[in-house]
Amino acid sequence: xxxxxxxxxxxxxxxPLGVVAQSxxxxxxxxxxxxxxxxxxxxxxxxxxxxxxxGTQQGYNLCNSTxxxxxxxxxxxxxxxxxDWCVWAPPIPNSTIGDTEGEEVAWCTKKGRGTRIIPAGAIxxxxxxKTPGYLQIVGFIDQTQINIAADDGGGELDPHGADLRGNxxxxxxxxxxxxSNGGNNNSFQQVIEWHNFMGSDQFCFKVCDPAGSNAAxxxxxxxxxxxxxxxxxxxxxxxxxxxxEGDNQxxxxxxxxxxxxxxxxxxxxxxxxxxxxxxxxxxxxxSNCVQFASxxxxxxxxxxxxxxxxxxxxxxxxxxxxxxxxxxxxxxSSSSSAATGSSSNNGAATMCISIxxxxxGVLAAVAFLS
Length: 370
What we know:
Layout: H1 6-17, E1 76-81, E2 84-89, H2 97-100, E3 105-108, E4 116-117, E5 123-130, E6 134-141, E7 155-157, E8 172-175, E9 189-190, E10 194-199, E11 202-208, H3 215-218, H4 227-231, E12 241-246, E13 254-257, E14 260-263, E15 286-292, H5 294-297, E16 312-313, E17 324-331, E18 336-342, E19 353-355, E20 367-369
């Protein structure tokens, strides 16, 4: 989950929180986003062996057939293609993302990598987007089937976090879907910049090309209170399963008004819920969209997987609804302030988030979706 960029964190958060140290040996601490492990030979048992304010990594990264199943604590995820991807979700039923952000495990659509497998019928719609700079999966899911409480607005996961250990702690992400991989489905690149929004029965997982020049901006992690509409603008529809090619989005928080490029500054949580924003996110153009029945995509799941709109082929410019405005509400037991954008038909574009939680009684920085 993302909170504040390191510079902002040091300037605004260090003083009131009082501690950012990882351990007694924090001088040698390496941020998660600076760690590189080749797959599979270079994967350690745990990517984050440090013991800090938030404790130790709860799962493991060295995953195989012996770890696969409903009790897996594998924290190595993959985003490859429309039929092959993972999300982060809790290991224990009826959990909230805010309470378990550091402990999330990988839930995936493919067997063979030592993870948990998303239950059949849980996924009810998705749009997979391949652009020059990133791969993005936006979808709709019965979140109770991946251990997220029914009423949880959710939160954001990313490889940074206020203490730079990532959420989940030690969570690693790989892909074989980028051009620099040469189309080799058996060779995986580590993805350094990514973000995953989970909650309100919806999700977005974006991974930015490690060979790209703008990966950190396209997978920005500092806009954790304004949700999917502004971080992953999309035209996904519940009940439809499709794979598209598309243009890069504007980097989250960046927009153009009166011919001038402007970067939005997210207000701190202390100022209360975000009730309005100065711009509407632009959904990138898309083309070569192909629709599938979900049973054709998710062959590793049981045959009862919910069907989509059938097999079809469609092309278009990706014209979808845009999300406008934001209204505040209180939700769940987390006492989080949640902002919900309005949308005419893009349900996945309406998730917005805010942050409020306590980490070990010391860190307060948990992002929630509405």
